Each structure stands twice: as structure tokens, then as C-alpha cells.
Amino acid sequence: MSAAKDDPNPKPSHFLRAVIERDLEAGVYAGRHFAGTPGDAAHHAAGPLDPARIRTRFPPEPNGYLHIGHAKSICLNFGLARDYGGVCHLRFDDTNPEKEEQEYVDAILDAVKWLGFDWESNGTSHLYYASDYFDFMHRAAVALIEAGLAYVDEQSAEQMRAARGDFITPGSDSPYRSRTPAENRARFAAMRAGELADGAAVLRARIDMASPNINLRDPALYRIKRATHHNTGDAWCIYPMYTFAHPIEDALENITHSICTLEFEDQRPFYDWLLDHLCELGLLAQPRPHQYEFARLNVTYIVTSKRKLRQLVDEGIVGGWDDPRLPTIAGLRRRGYTPASIRLLAERTGASKAGGWTDCASLDIALRDDLEGQAVRAMAVIEPLKLELVNWAEVFGDAASVACAAPAHPQRPELGQRNFGLGPLLWIERGDFAEVPPKGFFRLFPGNRVRLKYGAIVECIGCSKDAAGNVSAVQARVLPDTRSGTPGADAIKVKGTITWVAAHDALPAELRLYDRLFTEEQPDAGGKDFKAALNPQSVRVAQGFIEPSLAAAAAETHVQLERHGYFVTDRIDHRCERPVFNRIAGLKDKRS
Ligand code: ATP
Ligand code: MG
């Protein structure tokens, strides 16, 4: 059954919902036209009324694998569009020529789909590449030049930095600031034609060198960079700056609500300046998009910086981008977190202006909330110890085994039954036996009785040891007439129940037991060396046994192993003939 099918959907309200509801109420975007594809004012004016009530977008730079913070942004943008009768665009922000790779583009497409979202709506694909807008961006730059709103600055980078001022000192004007539009047009054409060296000139907006907001002190719009772009090849040797490109991308696509993280708050005045002017100049359709900022998702014990994740991968500290200990979407998936659990976390963490840390336990809580009602149950033994039922023949005669059954799910009879056998030789957890029981120990120790879950009651009579003195097997007697599900089985009361599998039908399996990758709550806080906080015990691989009901489990099957937690069959390494299970999370949070 698909984990993505149903969201429990609590949908707490937050300021972004309030903004959207206010805009819808006021009909702010009701009269917009949309031509079906991105374009300028004339393009959209020729199209019909926009069928989407709002448009949002998720704009990743394809320079790495997406992580849980991106998942949050995906859920927010696609989720809001879905909830309000809108459309969310998936846009690759590939305006920087140096860093993009197809591998990342493919991984991002995969991640968005896996999370349960789609950029296709009513038969139209809203998958866009920002580099397709280079021609328009160039045209917009020329229009700004002609309106006296941009100039080519040929100061050195050093001079420009010095003239920018700082928080207390206003900036000072560049000597090139008073160039005429005609001069600027010629110099910008020279930049474009490759007549100037990389870094020899930049195109800047002409706003206010004394603005208290440093982002408004004539920000750069275009730089010279001889680099081959994956989409446009060598067509350009000038590339737009992110702060210039991004608002234009939003406007060309008819985005209504452009949602980003708080570090862009200081850029909003420039976002508004740029789009207002390009609308006035008739280049972009109105009403134009607006930017709204929310606090990024930070999760304890997790590092999300792409640079640091890359370091973990490149240095072989983890097994790859999809290592089950990484917070990449690929890693979360392989670990076994379900799309619904990630959507639930995103929903529960809402959207706010105040940053903060989300307890990493929240992810496990969301996972349990998703899987509790749907994951099938099974027994497994992770640290096997032999249990010999010494009186088997007295109780069961010459039967090699007797049949046992258990519900696949305790609350879902429609999921049917699991069948397995009880035999004279079983595997139990090493931790379920104690030669000398500690206080309050109700499981196996000499003289004590326990129930083998779904099996029968046994009474421990002793154990055997190997040459080193370690317990190698436990002996017990099975009590007659105590088989689960038979009349009178409950006549004898015991305090402990243990899980087990039978040696004759259990399947050997590898169980990968994961723990936090870091031992500190904020491994990279304050520029700390995050690698110093690596948990040396972040994974342990156990060779155990699983119940035969899991014999045909496909890859990515979620299961609750009774008493042990939620597990998933590894999507890469699992084979029916060589099962591999990853532990996703325990049944409850043991640490809090
Ligand atoms: P990082 O620096 O963490 O690797 P990024 O911001 O450089 O991420 P982009 O590809 O530019 O990565 O981000 C795409 C979108 O995801 C942006 O809108 C960005 O704001 C959002 N995003 C990135 N990290 C988070 C986060 N931790 N919480 C919420 N949104 C995030
Ligand atoms: Mg970024």
C-alpha cells in the first residue's frame, strides 16, 4: 500500500496562508492573463485569463542533491498551490554557468515526484529552466540602460568594494555612474560581444549609493564570465546576477507568491524596485509577483549545507548521496522515511518568520504516525541466541513443527494473517535471556516462564556455554496446552512475552541499524568543525533472522518488526534471497 496515499492533513494556519487568503479575497490576481508558457507582458496579454488562482514555484539550483530543508520548501510551495487552486512551477535556477550537472537535475525531478508532487497541471508541464530567459534578461537590462536606470561600471572590484561603504558609512558614487544611456548601451554591447576581459566591467542598477540598505547601493546586474553553459553553450559571455535574474524569472512565469527563506529579506526592496520598473517600462505583465520570506527549517543533529554534505560524500565518510544517514531526500528515502512522513513534518513545522530548531525526533514521530496504521507486522531476531525446546517430542510427538498465525496488522483484519511454524529449535534475542536476572527482569532465566508470542509458554531450565564462557544456547521446556489461540492457553499466567523465529523456517537477513550521524545538536553551529562531532557508531550491521512471512518482500517494503521498530527493505541492496533491512526508527523515542 502506498505511503503517499493519504495525508492526515492537520494544516495549521500560518502567515503565508493568511497572505494568500487575503489576496484571493481581494481578487488581487483575478484579472491576470497567462499565455500557457512564460513570457513578457505582450505574450501574456494575448493569452486567456489565468486558470490558476495562484502560482508558486520551487526554484532549486541544480548544483547538488536536495535535502530536508528543500523538502520543506517543496511541500510548502506545491502544497499551497494545491490547497488554493493554484499551480506550482518547478524551475531550475541554472543562470550560474559553472556548477550545474544533469545528474543533479535528474535527482531533483525524482525527489519532487517521490514526495508526491507534480509540475504538470491540466496537461501543461510547468517545468522551466531559468537559462531559457537569458534573451529576455538581456532585453530588460538594455531597457533599464535606456531609462537611465543602469550603467556600466569599469572600476576594479577593489574600488567598487571600497565605494560601497558599510552599515554605518554611506557608499560613494562611481565615476562611471553619470554615463549617458548611449554610452552605457555601447559599453554593455562591448561586454556582450566579448570585447572586455572577465571582471573588467559590470552592469549596475542606478539606485542610491547612500541607501541604508546596502543591497540598494547600485547592485550588479550582469558580469562578464567566459564559461560554457550546459544549456546555452558559448552563446553568452555575460551572465545575469542571481538578484537580477530571480525576480524576472518569477514575473515571466506569472508567479503570484514568491516564497523564499529569510536571508533574502534584505533583497526584497530590490526585487520590488526591479519589477516595478520593468512593469512601468511595459516589459512585464501586471500584477507582478511579490516575495515573502519564512524561516528556514533547521533540524537538530542534522547538517544541511550542500557544501558540507558534499564533503561527507567526497571524503567517503558516508556511502554516497543516498546514504541512509544523510538528510538528503535520496538518503531519507533509502533510510525508509515515507513521502507522507516528510509532508507531515513540513505541515507541522508550518511557516514562520522566527527561526528555530526542530527536534530531530519530530521526523520519527511523523514516520510512526504514518506507518502505525499501515505497516505490516513481523517478528525478527537481531542478536540471535538458540533456544532448545528439550521436551518437544513429549508435547508434539513426531511433528517436526506446528503451525502458528498472527495478524498482519493488529487493527486491520483485511490485511490477513502471517503464518509461521513453531519447532524444537528457535532463535530468540540474546538480550531476552539472563543467567542471573537483574531486578525487574521478566524474560528468560532459569526457572522462569515466558510466552513465546503467538506460540506457547516455555519454562527455562538452563543454558550451555562455549569454551570462552559465553552463553551459546538456552534450554527450556514447552508447557502442554498453552499454544496461543487454543482453548485454555491463558490458564497459566506469565509476566513476560518474547519474540522469536523458528530455526526451520526463519530467513537469515542483514539488519542495518542506523543512529544519528552527529553527536551534537548543532554540529556546525558558529562555524565549528562539524566533522569533530561525527558519531562513530552511526551504523551497526547485524546478521539476524526474519519471519518467513517476509520471504517475498519487495524492495522498499515498510514493516514494523515487533518490539524493534520500523524497518524498510533496502531499495538498492535488498534481494529476496539475501534480505537487507534498514532500521528507520524505534517504536518510541528512547532518548527523550
Ligand atoms: P543550501 O545552501 O542549504 O544547500 P540552497 O538555498 O543553496 O540550499 P537552492 O537550490 O538555492 O539551495 O534552494 C532551493 C530552494 O530551497 C530555495 O527557495 C531555498 O530557499 C529553499 N531552501 C533551501 N534550504 C532550505 C531550508 N533549510 N528550509 C527551507 N527552505 C530551504
Ligand atoms: Mg542557494
What report would you give on this structure?
- It is a single chain.
- Among the domains are: 187 residues, Rossmann fold; 66 residues, Glutamyl-trna Synthetase, Domain 2 (Glutamyl-tRNA Synthetase, domain 2).
- Helix content is 24%, strand content 22%.
- It is built from 14 helices and 27 strands.
- α3 packs across α12, α8 crosses α9 and α12 packs across α13.
- The longest helix has 16 residues.
- Bound molecules: adenosine-5'-triphosphate and magnesium ion.
- The site of adenosine-5'-triphosphate has 14 residues, from α3 and β10.
Which blocks of ≥5 consecutive residues have pLDDT under 50?
1-7
Largest sheet strand order: 12-25-26-27-23-24-13
Bound molecules: adenosine-5'-triphosphate, magnesium ion
Helix coverage percent: 10-25%
Count every helix, treating DSSP H or I runs of 4 or more residues as helices.
Answer: 14
| SS-derived structural category | alpha/beta
Q: Using only CA atoms, what is the Rg?
A: 31 Å
Average pLDDT number:
95
Large-scale geometry: elongated
In CATH, what is the class of the domain at 3-135 and 241-294?
Alpha Beta
CATH topology-level name of the domain at 3-135 and 241-294: Rossmann fold
Q: Tell how many strands the DSSP assignment holds.
A: 27
CATH superfamily of the domain at 3-135 and 241-294: HUPs
Distance between the termini: 31 Å
Main β-sheet description: 7 strands, mixed
- What CATH architecture of the domain at 3-135 and 241-294 would you give? 3-Layer(aba) Sandwich
Q: What proportion of the residues form beta strands (DSSP E)?
A: 15-25%
